Amino acid sequence: MKISTKGRYGLRAVIDIAIHGENEPVPLGDIALRQDISMSYLEQLIAKLKKADIVTSVRGAKGGYSLAVPADRISVGDILRALEGDLAPVNCAEIMENGAPCKESGQCISKVVWKRISDSIHHAVDSLMLSELLADADADADKNSGC
Predict the structure, then answer these.
(1) How far apart are CA 147 and CA 125, in angstroms?
(2) What is the DSSP string of 34-52?
(3) Using 50, 70 and 90 to split pLDDT, how confident is the model at 106?
């Protein structure tokens, strides 16, 4: 499975909002500058994140974006699924969208491989919370500041 630019940039944008938006909403232009993401692309990503209730917006002169829920309730999986959709490495790794299993599943020996990979991916991204990324960033900043 390869995460697209949407997933990578969107995760960076959410982390930026979490870091800089504790006290007031973060303007989109500030995120775009810090993360080197074009405004038009960032607007598309933020729209998906807003629809998924990961971020919320405030209009007006002091407007911008903030987390819709606390960082310890947002998983990396929540963010990636909002931007990428399904994270399964192959279509047969899970039940198809229409609810029916893959038509080859009865005789497919390799489905065990795809299922394990899919389960591992989901476990990794669903167990990693945004708050952990922020704590790691704080720890790295402390190391680099000579503390």
Answers:
(1) 30
(2) HHT--HHHHHHHHHHHHHT
(3) low
